[in-house]
Design a protein that fits this description.
The protein has about 375 residues and is an alpha/beta fold. About 35% of the residues lie in helices and about 20% in strands. The protein has 13 helices and 13 strands. It has a 6-stranded mixed β-sheet, with helices on both faces. Strands 10-9-8-11-12 form a 5-stranded mixed β-sheet, with helices on both faces. Helix 6 runs antiparallel to helix 9, helix 8 packs across helix 9 and helix 9 packs across helix 10. The two termini are about 25 Å apart.
Length: about 375
Protein backbone atom coordinates (compact mmCIF):
# COMPACT_ATOMS: atom_id res chain seq x y z
CA UNK A 1 0.00 0.00 0.00
CA UNK A 2 1.06 3.59 -0.57
CA UNK A 3 1.78 5.85 2.36
CA UNK A 4 -0.89 8.21 3.65
CA UNK A 5 -0.11 11.31 5.68
CA UNK A 6 -2.08 11.49 8.92
CA UNK A 7 -2.31 13.69 11.98
CA UNK A 8 -3.20 11.84 15.16
CA UNK A 9 -4.85 13.51 18.15
CA UNK A 10 -5.15 12.18 21.67
CA UNK A 11 -6.71 13.51 24.84
CA UNK A 12 -6.30 10.77 27.40
CA UNK A 13 -7.71 9.87 30.78
CA UNK A 14 -5.09 12.06 32.48
CA UNK A 15 -6.87 15.07 30.91
CA UNK A 16 -3.70 17.14 30.71
CA UNK A 17 -4.08 18.32 27.13
CA UNK A 18 -4.05 17.38 23.45
CA UNK A 19 -1.15 15.41 21.96
CA UNK A 20 -0.60 15.86 18.22
CA UNK A 21 1.60 13.77 15.91
CA UNK A 22 2.25 13.60 12.17
CA UNK A 23 2.84 10.15 10.70
CA UNK A 24 3.22 8.84 7.17
CA UNK A 25 2.20 5.18 7.10
CA UNK A 26 0.57 2.39 5.12
CA UNK A 27 -1.27 1.27 8.27
CA UNK A 28 0.92 -1.83 8.45
CA UNK A 29 4.70 -1.86 8.85
CA UNK A 30 5.88 1.34 7.21
CA UNK A 31 6.23 4.28 9.61
CA UNK A 32 7.76 7.65 8.76
CA UNK A 33 7.71 9.84 11.84
CA UNK A 34 6.96 13.54 11.63
CA UNK A 35 6.87 16.32 14.23
CA UNK A 36 4.79 16.18 17.38
CA UNK A 37 3.20 18.73 19.66
CA UNK A 38 1.34 19.14 22.93
CA UNK A 39 -1.32 21.70 23.82
CA UNK A 40 -2.19 21.90 27.49
CA UNK A 41 -5.65 22.30 28.97
CA UNK A 42 -6.23 25.11 31.44
CA UNK A 43 -7.38 24.32 34.95
CA UNK A 44 -10.84 25.58 33.97
CA UNK A 45 -10.83 23.12 31.05
CA UNK A 46 -9.96 20.26 33.38
CA UNK A 47 -12.65 21.30 35.83
CA UNK A 48 -15.26 21.07 33.06
CA UNK A 49 -13.93 17.69 31.92
CA UNK A 50 -14.12 16.36 35.49
CA UNK A 51 -17.72 17.58 35.71
CA UNK A 52 -18.49 15.81 32.44
CA UNK A 53 -16.97 12.57 33.74
CA UNK A 54 -19.16 12.76 36.83
CA UNK A 55 -22.31 13.47 34.82
CA UNK A 56 -21.50 10.78 32.24
CA UNK A 57 -21.81 8.02 34.84
CA UNK A 58 -25.59 8.36 34.41
CA UNK A 59 -25.58 8.03 30.61
CA UNK A 60 -27.50 5.20 28.97
CA UNK A 61 -27.45 6.61 25.42
CA UNK A 62 -24.04 7.15 23.83
CA UNK A 63 -25.41 9.99 21.69
CA UNK A 64 -26.83 11.98 24.64
CA UNK A 65 -25.02 15.16 25.63
CA UNK A 66 -26.70 16.54 28.76
CA UNK A 67 -25.39 19.52 30.70
CA UNK A 68 -21.66 19.37 31.37
CA UNK A 69 -21.20 16.55 28.83
CA UNK A 70 -22.46 18.77 26.02
CA UNK A 71 -20.39 21.73 27.22
CA UNK A 72 -17.31 19.51 27.43
CA UNK A 73 -17.91 18.23 23.89
CA UNK A 74 -17.85 21.80 22.58
CA UNK A 75 -14.69 22.45 24.57
CA UNK A 76 -12.97 19.29 23.32
CA UNK A 77 -13.81 20.14 19.70
CA UNK A 78 -12.53 23.71 20.08
CA UNK A 79 -9.30 22.70 21.84
CA UNK A 80 -8.52 20.03 19.25
CA UNK A 81 -9.16 22.47 16.41
CA UNK A 82 -6.88 25.01 18.06
CA UNK A 83 -4.22 22.35 18.62
CA UNK A 84 -4.22 21.31 14.94
CA UNK A 85 -4.23 24.90 13.70
CA UNK A 86 -1.28 25.76 15.94
CA UNK A 87 0.55 22.59 14.91
CA UNK A 88 0.08 23.25 11.19
CA UNK A 89 1.21 26.84 11.62
CA UNK A 90 4.23 25.98 13.77
CA UNK A 91 5.38 23.21 11.42
CA UNK A 92 4.53 25.20 8.26
CA UNK A 93 2.31 22.39 7.01
CA UNK A 94 -0.37 22.81 4.36
CA UNK A 95 -3.67 21.16 5.40
CA UNK A 96 -4.06 20.02 1.78
CA UNK A 97 -1.02 17.76 2.29
CA UNK A 98 -2.76 15.86 5.11
CA UNK A 99 -4.90 12.91 4.02
CA UNK A 100 -6.69 12.19 7.30
CA UNK A 101 -6.91 13.25 10.94
CA UNK A 102 -7.39 10.62 13.64
CA UNK A 103 -9.65 12.19 16.28
CA UNK A 104 -10.21 10.02 19.34
CA UNK A 105 -12.02 12.69 21.36
CA UNK A 106 -12.35 12.37 25.12
CA UNK A 107 -13.65 9.21 26.74
CA UNK A 108 -16.20 10.11 29.42
CA UNK A 109 -17.69 6.64 29.96
CA UNK A 110 -16.51 3.15 29.10
CA UNK A 111 -18.85 0.29 30.04
CA UNK A 112 -18.36 -2.50 27.50
CA UNK A 113 -20.37 -4.94 29.65
CA UNK A 114 -23.35 -2.70 28.78
CA UNK A 115 -22.22 -2.38 25.14
CA UNK A 116 -21.64 1.30 25.89
CA UNK A 117 -18.61 3.50 25.27
CA UNK A 118 -18.82 7.28 24.98
CA UNK A 119 -16.20 9.58 23.44
CA UNK A 120 -17.11 13.24 23.09
CA UNK A 121 -16.01 15.58 20.30
CA UNK A 122 -17.68 16.79 17.11
CA UNK A 123 -15.78 15.26 14.19
CA UNK A 124 -17.97 16.95 11.57
CA UNK A 125 -17.28 20.40 13.00
CA UNK A 126 -13.56 19.60 13.18
CA UNK A 127 -13.43 18.48 9.53
CA UNK A 128 -15.33 21.54 8.36
CA UNK A 129 -13.10 23.93 10.29
CA UNK A 130 -9.79 22.34 9.31
CA UNK A 131 -10.61 21.31 5.75
CA UNK A 132 -9.26 17.78 6.33
CA UNK A 133 -11.12 14.46 6.47
CA UNK A 134 -11.49 13.14 10.03
CA UNK A 135 -11.62 9.52 11.24
CA UNK A 136 -13.37 9.11 14.58
CA UNK A 137 -15.49 6.78 16.75
CA UNK A 138 -12.84 4.07 16.81
CA UNK A 139 -14.27 1.97 19.66
CA UNK A 140 -17.99 1.58 18.97
CA UNK A 141 -17.93 -1.22 16.38
CA UNK A 142 -15.76 -3.41 18.57
CA UNK A 143 -18.02 -2.89 21.60
CA UNK A 144 -21.13 -3.56 19.48
CA UNK A 145 -19.53 -6.84 18.37
CA UNK A 146 -19.00 -7.92 21.99
CA UNK A 147 -15.42 -6.68 22.40
CA UNK A 148 -13.98 -4.57 25.19
CA UNK A 149 -13.37 -1.61 22.87
CA UNK A 150 -9.98 -1.09 24.53
CA UNK A 151 -7.09 -0.92 24.38
CA UNK A 152 -6.92 0.39 20.80
CA UNK A 153 -3.20 1.03 20.41
CA UNK A 154 -1.84 -2.57 20.23
CA UNK A 155 -1.84 -2.67 16.40
CA UNK A 156 0.44 0.36 16.48
CA UNK A 157 2.59 -1.06 19.28
CA UNK A 158 3.16 -4.15 17.11
CA UNK A 159 4.15 -2.00 14.11
CA UNK A 160 6.40 0.17 16.28
CA UNK A 161 8.25 -2.80 17.76
CA UNK A 162 8.72 -4.33 14.29
CA UNK A 163 9.89 -1.04 12.75
CA UNK A 164 12.39 -0.60 15.58
CA UNK A 165 14.02 -3.96 14.91
CA UNK A 166 13.51 -5.09 18.51
CA UNK A 167 14.24 -8.80 18.74
CA UNK A 168 12.43 -11.22 21.01
CA UNK A 169 9.15 -10.85 22.84
CA UNK A 170 8.49 -7.40 24.27
CA UNK A 171 5.88 -5.72 26.42
CA UNK A 172 4.85 -2.16 25.60
CA UNK A 173 3.28 -0.50 28.64
CA UNK A 174 1.36 2.74 28.35
CA UNK A 175 0.80 4.53 31.65
CA UNK A 176 -1.71 7.32 31.24
CA UNK A 177 -4.71 7.72 33.51
CA UNK A 178 -5.25 3.97 33.07
CA UNK A 179 -2.37 1.58 32.40
CA UNK A 180 -2.38 -1.00 29.62
CA UNK A 181 0.10 -3.48 28.22
CA UNK A 182 0.66 -4.98 24.78
CA UNK A 183 2.62 -8.23 24.53
CA UNK A 184 4.31 -8.46 21.11
CA UNK A 185 6.07 -11.60 19.89
CA UNK A 186 6.96 -11.32 16.22
CA UNK A 187 5.85 -8.74 13.68
CA UNK A 188 3.16 -10.85 12.02
CA UNK A 189 1.59 -12.32 15.15
CA UNK A 190 -1.53 -10.70 16.57
CA UNK A 191 -0.69 -8.88 19.82
CA UNK A 192 -2.17 -9.67 23.20
CA UNK A 193 -3.23 -6.60 25.15
CA UNK A 194 -5.42 -5.42 28.02
CA UNK A 195 -5.87 -2.71 30.61
CA UNK A 196 -3.93 -3.68 33.72
CA UNK A 197 -5.24 -1.27 36.34
CA UNK A 198 -4.83 2.38 37.29
CA UNK A 199 -2.03 4.37 35.76
CA UNK A 200 -1.63 7.94 36.94
CA UNK A 201 -5.33 8.68 37.58
CA UNK A 202 -5.48 7.72 41.25
CA UNK A 203 -2.24 9.53 42.04
CA UNK A 204 -3.48 12.62 40.20
CA UNK A 205 -6.83 12.51 41.99
CA UNK A 206 -5.13 12.14 45.36
CA UNK A 207 -2.80 15.06 44.74
CA UNK A 208 -5.62 17.30 43.59
CA UNK A 209 -7.77 16.44 46.60
CA UNK A 210 -5.00 16.68 49.21
CA UNK A 211 -2.69 19.40 47.84
CA UNK A 212 -4.53 21.22 45.06
CA UNK A 213 -1.80 20.17 42.62
CA UNK A 214 -2.92 18.08 39.62
CA UNK A 215 0.02 15.62 39.61
CA UNK A 216 2.82 14.23 41.75
CA UNK A 217 5.57 15.93 39.74
CA UNK A 218 8.51 13.54 39.20
CA UNK A 219 7.06 11.23 41.86
CA UNK A 220 8.54 13.56 44.50
CA UNK A 221 5.71 13.18 47.02
CA UNK A 222 5.67 9.38 46.70
CA UNK A 223 9.45 9.30 47.09
CA UNK A 224 9.08 10.81 50.57
CA UNK A 225 6.54 8.22 51.70
CA UNK A 226 6.37 4.54 52.60
CA UNK A 227 4.16 1.95 50.95
CA UNK A 228 1.43 0.71 53.28
CA UNK A 229 1.43 -2.97 52.38
CA UNK A 230 -1.93 -3.68 54.02
CA UNK A 231 -3.65 -0.96 52.00
CA UNK A 232 -1.83 -2.10 48.86
CA UNK A 233 -3.10 -5.66 49.34
CA UNK A 234 -6.62 -4.31 49.86
CA UNK A 235 -6.40 -2.57 46.47
CA UNK A 236 -5.20 -5.79 44.85
CA UNK A 237 -8.30 -7.67 46.07
CA UNK A 238 -10.40 -5.77 43.51
CA UNK A 239 -12.25 -8.34 41.35
CA UNK A 240 -10.80 -6.85 38.16
CA UNK A 241 -7.49 -8.54 38.89
CA UNK A 242 -9.09 -11.97 39.00
CA UNK A 243 -10.68 -11.51 35.56
CA UNK A 244 -8.97 -13.13 32.61
CA UNK A 245 -7.95 -10.96 29.68
CA UNK A 246 -8.92 -9.36 27.34
CA UNK A 247 -10.43 -6.83 29.71
CA UNK A 248 -10.70 -3.05 29.97
CA UNK A 249 -11.34 -0.32 32.51
CA UNK A 250 -13.12 2.96 32.94
CA UNK A 251 -11.04 5.71 34.54
CA UNK A 252 -13.35 5.75 37.57
CA UNK A 253 -13.32 2.01 38.31
CA UNK A 254 -10.92 2.59 41.20
CA UNK A 255 -10.86 5.16 44.02
CA UNK A 256 -7.98 6.48 46.10
CA UNK A 257 -10.10 6.59 49.28
CA UNK A 258 -8.55 3.45 50.79
CA UNK A 259 -5.59 5.76 51.49
CA UNK A 260 -7.63 8.39 53.36
CA UNK A 261 -6.03 7.56 56.73
CA UNK A 262 -2.49 7.77 55.36
CA UNK A 263 -0.31 10.86 55.09
CA UNK A 264 -0.23 12.34 51.61
CA UNK A 265 3.32 11.04 51.17
CA UNK A 266 2.45 7.48 52.23
CA UNK A 267 -0.75 7.59 50.18
CA UNK A 268 1.16 8.66 47.06
CA UNK A 269 3.77 5.96 47.65
CA UNK A 270 1.07 3.31 48.09
CA UNK A 271 -0.84 4.36 44.97
CA UNK A 272 2.39 4.40 42.96
CA UNK A 273 3.15 0.88 44.17
CA UNK A 274 -0.43 -0.11 43.26
CA UNK A 275 0.10 0.87 39.62
CA UNK A 276 3.31 -1.18 39.47
CA UNK A 277 1.89 -4.15 41.40
CA UNK A 278 -1.17 -4.37 39.16
CA UNK A 279 1.14 -4.46 36.14
CA UNK A 280 3.10 -7.26 37.80
CA UNK A 281 -0.15 -9.20 38.20
CA UNK A 282 -0.78 -8.72 34.48
CA UNK A 283 2.61 -10.22 33.64
CA UNK A 284 1.74 -13.15 35.90
CA UNK A 285 -1.21 -13.99 33.63
CA UNK A 286 1.15 -14.68 30.73
CA UNK A 287 2.89 -18.06 30.29
CA UNK A 288 6.36 -16.49 30.14
CA UNK A 289 7.99 -13.14 30.74
CA UNK A 290 8.98 -10.96 27.77
CA UNK A 291 12.61 -10.07 27.16
CA UNK A 292 11.95 -6.42 28.01
CA UNK A 293 9.27 -3.95 29.02
CA UNK A 294 9.13 -0.52 27.37
CA UNK A 295 7.29 2.20 29.29
CA UNK A 296 5.56 5.08 27.53
CA UNK A 297 3.04 7.71 28.52
CA UNK A 298 3.20 10.07 31.47
CA UNK A 299 4.27 7.34 33.87
CA UNK A 300 7.66 7.11 32.17
CA UNK A 301 8.48 10.56 33.61
CA UNK A 302 7.91 9.42 37.20
CA UNK A 303 11.21 8.08 38.62
CA UNK A 304 9.48 6.69 41.70
CA UNK A 305 7.07 4.70 39.56
CA UNK A 306 9.88 3.54 37.27
CA UNK A 307 11.73 2.28 40.34
CA UNK A 308 8.66 0.35 41.50
CA UNK A 309 8.30 -1.18 38.03
CA UNK A 310 11.95 -2.20 37.95
CA UNK A 311 11.52 -3.93 41.33
CA UNK A 312 8.24 -5.69 40.56
CA UNK A 313 8.30 -6.68 36.88
CA UNK A 314 9.95 -9.97 35.83
CA UNK A 315 12.08 -8.44 33.04
CA UNK A 316 14.33 -5.44 32.37
CA UNK A 317 12.50 -2.10 32.11
CA UNK A 318 13.31 0.83 29.82
CA UNK A 319 11.52 4.05 28.95
CA UNK A 320 10.33 4.66 25.40
CA UNK A 321 12.93 7.44 25.08
CA UNK A 322 15.69 4.97 25.96
CA UNK A 323 14.79 2.82 22.93
CA UNK A 324 14.52 5.85 20.64
CA UNK A 325 10.75 6.32 20.63
CA UNK A 326 8.84 9.57 21.14
CA UNK A 327 7.20 8.28 24.29
CA UNK A 328 4.81 11.16 24.96
CA UNK A 329 3.53 11.09 21.37
CA UNK A 330 2.94 7.36 20.96
CA UNK A 331 -0.83 7.47 21.53
CA UNK A 332 -1.22 10.40 19.13
CA UNK A 333 0.90 8.54 16.59
CA UNK A 334 -1.28 5.50 17.18
CA UNK A 335 -4.43 7.40 16.23
CA UNK A 336 -2.75 8.67 13.08
CA UNK A 337 -1.91 5.03 12.33
CA UNK A 338 -5.44 3.85 13.15
CA UNK A 339 -6.97 6.63 11.02
CA UNK A 340 -5.05 5.29 8.02
CA UNK A 341 -6.28 1.79 8.83
CA UNK A 342 -9.85 3.14 8.82
CA UNK A 343 -9.10 4.80 5.47
CA UNK A 344 -7.76 1.50 4.08
CA UNK A 345 -10.46 -0.74 5.58
CA UNK A 346 -7.97 -2.59 7.79
CA UNK A 347 -9.06 -4.05 11.15
CA UNK A 348 -8.41 -2.08 14.32
CA UNK A 349 -9.00 -4.72 16.99
CA UNK A 350 -8.31 -8.42 17.40
CA UNK A 351 -9.40 -11.36 19.57
CA UNK A 352 -6.24 -11.04 21.66
CA UNK A 353 -6.64 -7.32 22.28
CA UNK A 354 -10.34 -6.79 22.99
CA UNK A 355 -11.85 -10.29 23.04
CA UNK A 356 -13.84 -9.66 19.87
CA UNK A 357 -14.53 -12.91 17.98
CA UNK A 358 -12.59 -11.93 14.83
CA UNK A 359 -10.41 -9.06 13.61
CA UNK A 360 -12.80 -6.12 13.49
CA UNK A 361 -12.82 -2.96 11.42
CA UNK A 362 -14.01 0.21 13.04
CA UNK A 363 -14.13 3.96 12.93
CA UNK A 364 -16.02 6.35 10.72
CA UNK A 365 -14.86 9.08 8.38
CA UNK A 366 -16.44 12.48 7.96
CA UNK A 367 -15.39 14.21 4.76
CA UNK A 368 -14.32 17.83 4.71
CA UNK A 369 -15.63 20.36 2.20
CA UNK A 370 -12.27 20.11 0.44
CA UNK A 371 -12.54 16.41 -0.38
CA UNK A 372 -16.24 16.59 -1.21
CA UNK A 373 -15.68 19.10 -4.01
Amino acid sequence: MTLSRAIGLMSGTSMDGVDVALLDTDGEARLVFGPTGFFAYSEADRDLLRAALAEATRLADREARPGAVGAAERLITERHAQAVESFLRDEKLDPAAVDIIGFHGQTVLHRPERRLTVQIGDAKALAERLGVDVAFDFRADDVAAGGEGAPLVPAYHRALVAASGIAGPAAVINIGGVANVTFVDGGAAEPVAFDTGPGNALIDDLMLARTGQPVDRDGATAAKGRVDEAVLQSFLLHPYFQKTYPKSLDRNDFSFHLTDKLSVEDAAATLTAFTAASLALAFGQRPSAPARAIICGGGAHNPTLMGELARRLPCPVATAAEVGWMGDAIEAQAFAFLAVRVLNGQPLTFPGTTGVSAPTKGGRIVRSDRTMR
